[in-house]
Design a protein that fits this description.
Number of strands: 5
CATH class of the largest domain: Mainly Alpha
Number of domains: 2
Strand content: 15-25%
Largest sheet: 3 strands, antiparallel
CATH architecture of the largest domain: Orthogonal Bundle
Order of helices and strands: HEHHEEHHHHEEH
Strand order of the largest sheet: 1-3-2
Distance between the termini: 55 Å
Number of helices: 8
CATH topology of the largest domain: Arc Repressor Mutant, subunit A
Helix content: 40-55%
Length: about 160
């Protein structure tokens, strides 16, 4: 039971698929144990509309496909506004991209994990690898939502207080 909870926690936390190799190493199990764990966990998750999908390389926690239309209609008809923390993170990324999570957290003085996940899920930012470090940049969707044609239209930040010129 404990290992099932750990697997779900790892997958729930990530907005992207996680490599099988990384899961096996983190949970200290082998491939056969992971396959059995996935099967047993999916039985329980099915009761609440979730499923672990995976291939030979990665796994991800997703909603069952029978709920995809519900989700699509919900978000199409009632888009959730961005929270204040998400707006802060988005602003930091937009002005300082590419930027790593540690730098974002340092600027804000608080963890940005949830905001980053939400922004990735909304397609406003994405992860990139630069010099073997994970960093974040804005997407074309960000430009559309912001109503701008390029990042140059954002203006420059003046100093560390976050005010713009």
């Amino acid at each position: 039971m404990e290992t099932e909870a750990k697997l779900v926690a790892l997958l729930f936390y990530s907005a992207e698929p996680i490599s099988i190799r990384h899961i096996i190493r983190t949970l200290s199990i082998d491939k056969a144990e992971l396959a059995e764990l996935k099967k047993n966990t999916n039985i329980k998750l099915g009761a609440i509309g979730l499923v672990i999908l995976g291939d030979a390389n990665s796994m991800q926690l997703v909603i069952e496909s029978k709920y995809s239309l519900l989700i699509e209609n919900f978000y199409e008809t009632s888009p959730e506004p961005l929270s204040q923390p998400a707006l802060e993170v988005l602003s930091i990324i937009a002005h300082k991209q590419p930027i790593g999570k540690m730098n974002i957290d340092e600027i804000r003085g608080i963890s940005s994990d949830q905001s980053i996940r939400n922004l990735i899920n909304k397609g406003l930012i994405k992860k990139v690898t630069e010099d073997s470090a994970t960093k974040y940049i804005t997407t074309l969707e960000f430009l559309k939502v912001a109503g701008i044609n390029s990042l140059h239209e954002l203006g420059k930040l003046d100093g560390s207080d976050g005010t713009s010129k």
